[in-house]
């Protein structure tokens, strides 16, 4: 059976942590930062994790991650 291809856009956006969780960036950080509080902008810079219910979908996109 041939190798599966990884989804190229997902390779650039998601990383798997050592514990197996999938890291992602937070949304709503890029534009209109003047309208958001400094605390909110700072917190949006932190990494976030996918919910366990999305693991099956991400594993299909990144079979070798």
Share of helix among residues?
25-40%
Number of domain modules:
1
* Rg measurement, Å: 15 Å
| Main structural class | alpha+beta
Strand order of the largest sheet: 1-2-3
Ranges with pLDDT <50 over ≥5 residues? Answer: none
Could you say what the CATH architecture is? Irregular
Would you give the CATH topology? Answer: Factor Xa Inhibitor
Mean pLDDT: 93
What is the class in the CATH system? Few Secondary Structures
Which of globular, elongated, flat, extended, rod-shaped describes the shape? elongated
Q: Can you count the beta strands? A: 3
* Residues in β-strands, percent: 5-15%
What does the main sheet amount to? 3 strands, antiparallel
Distance between the termini: 19 Å
If you had to describe this structure to a student in words, what would you say it looks like?
- The chain has one domain: Factor Xa Inhibitor (Irregular), CATH 4.10.410.60.
- It contains three helices and three strands.
- It has helices at 8-13, 38-44, 55-61; strands spanning 15-16, 22-24, 48-49.
- A three-stranded antiparallel beta sheet has the order 1-2-3.
- A hairpin with a 5-residue loop joins β1 and β2.
- It is elongated and about 50 Å long.
- The model has no long low-confidence stretch (mean pLDDT 93).
Gist?
This protein is of the alpha+beta class and 65 residues long. It is built from three helices and three strands; from the N terminus they run αββαβα.
List keywords for this structure.
single chain, 65 residues, alpha+beta, Factor Xa Inhibitor, three-stranded antiparallel β-sheet, 3 helices, 3 strands, 11% strand, elongated
